[in-house]
Amino acid sequence: MALVARTLRRSFLETRSILPPTFLLPFRANITTVAHSNETGNLTELPIQASQSIPIVKDIQENAIPISQTPKLPHPPRPTTQNKNAPPSPLTPSIRHLLPLLHTQPSHYLTIHLHGHPYLITKGDTVRLPFLMPNVKPGDVLRLDRATHIGSRDYTLKAPEAIKGTRDNVKKILYLDERLFVCRATVVGIESEPMRVMEKTKRRQRHVKHVYSKHKFTILKISEVEVRSLEEYEALLEPHER
Amino acid sequence: MAYFRITLMRSGIGMPLKVQGVLKALGLRKRMTTVYYPVTPDVAGQIMRIKELVDVKEVDRPLTKQQQREQRRPEKGYHVEKRGSEQTSNYEGL
């Protein structure tokens, strides 16, 4: 009995010594996310305030913001007057606040989607696609216009969650506005894998059939990743809003 | 004109031959196949025989198989902005 108690105490002490108290543990979820959605009904301002010089790493969740914080914030200028029938402006207050901060940080990454599959890229990356892209040749410049994340070191602009498919509606991935960023890729070449041989056998037969296959893959080089500044984005939006 | 959208949710394996025959008649060969039929008493009767296996909804217009596939297809996500061959021809001109 005493032995058990001792081992228990030791194990307890060991865990104590290994792990610092929980409030000192690194909080991984902090690596920041500027969540935003296209809903204009959700007008909660994001709590990036005070000493904006140092971008504070904060996990920002729109719905989690207590309402008491919102009055402290300077109210952003509202987007130009909209008709109620018009589609909601993509320029949400959170974008208005935080796009300049995202824009000023150097080197961005994007999660682009090709045929519904995500690829995390930055400038200069070489992407070997898992398929042979039809009707392109080396040297062609592609414009990649579907992305779900734009990120820098401290900020991430996320697209709303994908809408799950039901019996009546198919799954819908919601992308970021394509005017927010410019992403270009150059087709560098076509790579092919070594020949694969698959041996097909039947039971109780000596004959072995060999099936050969050799796939080809397109290689892209990401030549340009640029996040538009707020002014450029507004200028692009303007003709559509009027 | 209204149509029934019939989707086979549960397989007909192990069902009586009459039920399997109804599935065959409706063209429901394997699970998750969807077929469209106009709303008529005979189709309604067929659905009644297999009502435990299928999901039925009344829709306005039938979709072909190609249209159903097209609905599910995700966006391409790229377009060719500039052809490489155009650039080389420019260089040749210089």
* Count of structural domains of chain A: 1
Give the mean pLDDT of chain A: 75
Q: Provide a count of the helices of chain B.
A: 4
Termini Cα gap of chain B: 64 Å
The main sheet of chain B orders its strands as 2-1-3
**CATH class assignment of the domain at 1-63 in chain B:** Alpha Beta
Radius of gyration of chain B: 23 Å
Helix content of chain B: 25-40%
The low-pLDDT segments of chain A are: 27-84
Unreliable stretches of chain B (pLDDT < 50, length at least 5) are none
Mean pLDDT of chain B: 91
Structure description:
The complex is a heterodimer of chains A (242) and B (94). Chain A is of the alpha+beta class and 242 residues long. Helix content of chain A is 17%, strand content 28%. In chain A, a hairpin with a 4-residue loop joins strand 7 (147-151) and strand 8 (156-158). In chain A, 19% of the residues are buried. The model of chain A is unreliable at 27-84 (pLDDT under 50). With 94 residues, chain B is of the alpha+beta class. Chain B has four helices and four strands, in the order βαβαβαβα. Chain B has a three-stranded antiparallel beta sheet with strand order 2-1-3, with no helix packed on it. The longest helix of chain B is centred in the first third of the chain and has 10 residues, at 17-26. Chain B is elongated and about 75 Å long. The N and C termini of chain B lie far apart (64 Å). At the A-B interface, strand 3, strand 6 and strand 9 of A face strand 4 and helix 4 of B. Strand 6 of chain A pairs antiparallel with strand 4 (78-82) of chain B, so a sheet runs across the interface.
Secondary structure layout plus pairing:
The complex is a heterodimer of chains A (242) and B (94).
Chain A: H1 2-18, E1 33-34, E2 59-60, H2 93-104, E3 109-114, E4 117-122, E5 126-128, E6 141-144, E7 147-151, E8 156-158, E9 181-192, E10 196-201, E11 208-213, E12 216-227, H3 230-241
Parallel strand pairs in A: 1-2
Antiparallel strand pairs in A: 3-4, 3-7, 5-12, 6-9, 7-8, 9-12, 10-11
Chain B: E1 3-8, H1 17-26, E2 34-38, H2 41-49, E3 54-59, H3 65-72, E4 78-82, H4 84-93
Antiparallel strand pairs in B: 1-2, 1-3
